[in-house]
Q: What sequence folds into this?
């Protein structure tokens, strides 16, 4: 295996975490649009609170440690563990839209792996092809591991991409201005290192996806009368 | 019924003797009737008799826990097997209580195995986690490819009526349903008393009662859209936050508010619609719910 230089790893990571990644992330708000509709989010401060709380208590304590476990499984070539974690993530999705979201994004990521024609991704392609429904973090962790990105950096970028997508959704749905968006991103970005550090060592017995108001917001979004987003 | 007197240490409610209680139930289908083929217990956890409030087809069991609550150091294991083609309905006569712990953790492990063609209704009353409790709740449901499950759990944090909040202690919760060897539903929580998540608008939003109803049966994918439409016309009587959704193979209803009775009444209304679809039977309300 060719060892990638650190600057090439960074370039690869920026590509993987970019909103230009053709997986359609920008079409999903993950319940944020319902939080706006129901008045929980009404301005910059309440949007920041919602997203920061999900970072700390939602994605940070389930998807984040799961991504770390997935990267370890990909790095170790442990296909049964990859399949197990993929199944766990799919079953942990709180609503029909959230589950459909990760399956659609996982499908798009699998297609991207083929379209990249990178020999380093051949094993990832073959493993993903054997999974059936692919959860987004499963595919993403596979590419990150194949591109030799260290878990801490990969997780930081993954959380950043999620936060950026949430802030962009808030900009459209509330709506908020670009300056508000940048303030929110600076604030959220400052919180990511601690969330990532905790997730790197959180044992599976302490993973937590128990955020019922978020789950209800995602379920209610399904019948929201007027909506811009698919979740 | 009181806890047994403690012979080894002075009387103290938080250092009472601990229980390692087990209950093993087995239901089987014999000549058109669901029978309670196994009813074995150790410690104060039992089912007194098999009940047939709606004829031979459904066996109802009332799960009794005489000490009425779970104290630090107690470990309860409930293991229920519903054999091929049988139909069991489990409920409880009163709220489960998790008492304040003096330091030791308490646990309850519920293992529900529903075999081919079998049906299980798991309809307990609410669980109240007292401030200072250290509780671990595990519920593992194993379904065959064609088994049917309709169950709920209502979790109350602190004795809200007495103004108590869940500010100390912790609870760990792990609920999972597997169908044909694949995970269908996973919810896990690891929450310390006073956890910021409990007040977060995305977490518990300051509420004290969280209820989750889960339903899965083989024909659900074809019926989900019509069921969702019917179920969504019903709302909790207290106006609490609620939502209903149906990812593939599963229907989920959630309540988040402050009134466990409103949660249970709403779930019972949903159950009236779901039971004919899931179990092929009209909804006959268990009499114990009226008391």
A:
């Amino acid at each position: 295996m060719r060892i990638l230089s650190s600057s090439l790893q960074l370039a690869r990571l920026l590509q993987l975490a970019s909103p230009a990644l053709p997986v359609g992330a920008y079409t999903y708000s993950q319940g944020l649009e319902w939080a706006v509709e129901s008045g929980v989010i009404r301005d910059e401060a309440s949007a920041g609170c919602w997203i920061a709380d999900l970072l700390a208590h939602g994605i940070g304590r389930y998807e984040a440690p799961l991504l770390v476990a997935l990267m370890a499984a990909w790095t170790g070539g442990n296909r049964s563990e990859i399949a197990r974690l993929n199944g766990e993530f799919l079953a942990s999705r709180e609503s029909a839209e959230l589950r459909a979201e990760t399956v659609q994004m996982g499908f798009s990521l699998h297609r991207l792996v083929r379209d990249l024609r990178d020999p380093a991704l051949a094993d990832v392609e073959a493993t993903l092809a054997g999974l059936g429904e692919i959860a987004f973090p499963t595919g993403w962790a596979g590419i990150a591991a194949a591109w030799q990105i260290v878990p801490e950096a990969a997780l930081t970028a993954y959380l950043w991409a999620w936060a950026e997508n949430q802030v962009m959704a808030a900009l459209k749905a509330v709506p908020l201005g670009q300056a508000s968006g940048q303030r929110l991103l600076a604030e959220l970005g400052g919180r990511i290192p601690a969330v990532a550090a905790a997730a790197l060592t959180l044992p599976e017995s302490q993973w937590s996806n128990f955020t019922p108001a978020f789950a209800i917001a995602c379920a209610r979004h399904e019948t929201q009368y007027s909506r811009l987003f698919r979740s | 019924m009181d806890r047994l007197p403690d012979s080894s240490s002075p009387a103290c409610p938080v250092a009472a003797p601990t229980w390692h209680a087990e209950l093993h139930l087995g239901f089987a289908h014999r000549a058109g009737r669901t029978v309670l083929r196994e009813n074995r217990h150790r410690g104060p956890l039992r089912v007194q008799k098999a009940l047939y409030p709606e004829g031979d087809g459904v066996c109802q069991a009332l799960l009794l826990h005489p000490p009425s609550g779970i104290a630090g150091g107690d470990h309860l294991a409930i293991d229920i097997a519903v054999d091929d083609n049988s139909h069991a309905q489990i409920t409880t006569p009163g709220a489960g209580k998790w008492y304040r712990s003096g330091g030791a953790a308490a646990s309850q492990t519920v293992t529900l195995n529903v075999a081919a063609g079998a049906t299980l209704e798991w309809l307990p009353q609410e669980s109240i986690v007292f401030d200072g409790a250290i509780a671990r709740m595990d519920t593992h449901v194993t379904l065959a490819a064609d088994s049917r499950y309709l169950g709920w759990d209502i979790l109350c944090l602190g004795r809200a009526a007495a103004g108590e909040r869940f500010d100390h202690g912790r609870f760990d919760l792990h609920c999972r349903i597997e169908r044909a060897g694949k995970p269908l539903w996973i919810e896990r929580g690891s929450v310390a008393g006073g956890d910021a998540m409990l007040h977060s608008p995305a977490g518990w939003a300051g509420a004290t009662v969280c209820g989750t109803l889960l339903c899965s049966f083989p024909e659900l994918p074809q019926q989900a859209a019509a069921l969702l439409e019917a179920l969504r016309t019903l709302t909790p009587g207290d106006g609490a936050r609620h939502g209903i959704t149906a990812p593939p193979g599963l229907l989920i209803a959630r309540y988040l508010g402050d009134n466990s009775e409103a949660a249970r009444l709403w779930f019972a209304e949903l159950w009236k619609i779901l039971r004919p679809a899931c179990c092929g039977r009209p909804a006959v309300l268990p009499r114990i719910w009226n008391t």
Remarks:
- Chain A is about 70% helix and 0% strand.
- The mean pLDDT of chain A is 97.
- The radius of gyration of chain A is 17 Å.
